[in-house]
Structures are given as structure tokens and as C-alpha cells.
Amino acid sequence: RFRLGDTAHHEVYEGECVGLILALHMLSEQDEVRTVSIWADNTAAIQATATDKCGAAHYLMDYFHSLLTRVRERHPFLKLRICWVPGHTGVDGNERADVEAKMAATGRSS
Q: Residue 45 is part of a domain; what is its CATH number?
């Protein structure tokens, strides 16, 4: 969980980007990983992972790409997929992520 701040200063898209960054951070701490799928329900954030164009929250995608470089150095044979999952459709992992996001939004973050 990571709290960005209040909604007057941050948007859902930024939270989705931070979620992708947190996934890479967890991956960077693992040993001998070969195949990983990261699932997200925000197509804009997923599309931003595949480009270096300037856009909303570009600084977050810059950090995502620098962290991805470090992950690939640690796991040179890694096959990484970033996939879309429909939001609010009863997918257990996505529902759990929504619960965690709401906890972070209320300030309960580690």
C-alpha cells in the first residue's frame, strides 16, 4: 500500500501507475523469477508502460522504466506481461487490490 495524498492533488491514474511500480518493486526483491504477469484495470496506465512519450504523470512512468531496467538486470531471462483485467467484475485479485487502494486512500498505509 502506498498513499499518494488527497484527491485534490492526485488522480486515480497516478495511483494505478504507482501500483505498477509497486509490483516491479516486489519483483525486484525476488530470486530466480522467469515469468510474471502483472494485471491492472486501467488501460491508460498499461499503455503508458509501452511508451516514453510525455503524458500525464510522466515522472511516474520514468521511474517505472528505470525500475524495469534494474529488474531486467537482476532477472535477465524474465518474461514479463502486463495485462488488462476488467475492473469491478468480481475478479478476486482485483477486488483485493481495490480494498487495499481504499485503505491507502484513507491514510492507512505502510
A: 3.30.420.10
